[in-house]
Amino acid sequence: MKLQSAALGFRVKSGWAVAVLLTGPARLPQLCDVQRIDLFDPRLPETRQPYHAAMGKLETDATKINRRVCIVRSIAQQSFATLHAGYRGEGYAISRASLVVGSQIDPDSIANAHIRAHAFEGQLFRSVLEEVLQTCGIRTGIVIERNAYAQAAAKLKESNENVRRMIQNFGRAVQGPWRAEQKLAALAAWVALC
Q1: What's the first-to-final CA gap in the chain, in angstroms?
Q2: DSSP state, 5?
Q3: Which residues lie across from 7 on neighbouring strands?
Q4: What is the pLDDT of residues 38-92, one digit of tens each?
Q5: 9 contact partners, CB below 8 Å, separation of at least 6
Q6: Whole-Å CA distances, 151 to 66, 101, 157, 160, 176
Q7: How many CA atoms lie within 13 A of 80 on its CB side?
Q8: Angle at 41 between CA 36 and CA 43, to 5 degrees
């Protein structure tokens, strides 16, 4: 069976990500699938926010953090392996991906400990998923949420309006939610098709 070339887009959140699979040339993309994947272990809630201690404070125990990060890496590998195998079984060959992330700010530059914990988590989940993709030989790019539509419009050589319209239209084919996370993941997949 000949595999069809496809691209994945992800909107990475704390402990999970939305994945959108697109095929086709960038001029005529086709939405094939939308899924949510876990990047934390639901049996261990502390792995959803590995840099948080009790009462929302920044975790300072390096042993606890390292243990949680190892679990996050393992879960991300398992979740992506399952997703990837499923797509391969359906006849898709994924060679490119893009991740939409909230920011790329250095967490150490943030004074507020609680906000710094969130920044460390954003960095962790993004980097773990990026590493898993690259280990599988999937070329990976990053799109910052704040600039996502403008960046996509420039890369696709389309107006911002046309890009937004196309993303909205993808939602008509989806059985389930078509919220900001799904739209941004679709946008990332479309950028990855280029």
Answers
A1: 25
A2: E
A3: 22, 96
A4: 999 999 999 999 999 877 788 999 999 999 999 999 999 999 999 999 999 999 9
A5: 19, 20, 22, 97, 98, 99, 100, 184, 185, 186, 187, 188, 189, 190, 191, 192
A6: 35, 13, 10, 9, 27
A7: 25
A8: 120
pTM score, two decimals?
0.94
Query: Residue length, the chain?
Result: 194
Residue with tokens 């999970």: 16
Q: Please report, for residues 13, 85, 106, 142, the alpha-carbon distance to residue 103 in angstroms, rounded to integers and kept in the order given.
A: 11, 30, 9, 10
Give the bridge partners for 93, in sequence order.
Answer: 5
3-state secondary structure of 3: coil
CATH number of 4-193: 3.30.420.10
Structure tokens at 63: 């042993």
Query: Would you list the domain boundaries of the chain?
Result: 4-193
The H or E element containing residue 72 is helix 62-89
Q: Residue 129 carries which side chain, given as an amino acid letter?
A: L
Give Cβ neighbours of residue 15 (< 8 Å, ≥ 6 apart).
38, 39, 40, 47, 48, 49, 125
pLDDT digits (tens, 9 = 90+) for 114-172: 999 999 999 999 999 999 999 999 999 999 999 999 999 999 999 999 999 999 999 99
Contact 10, 18 (CB under 8 A): yes
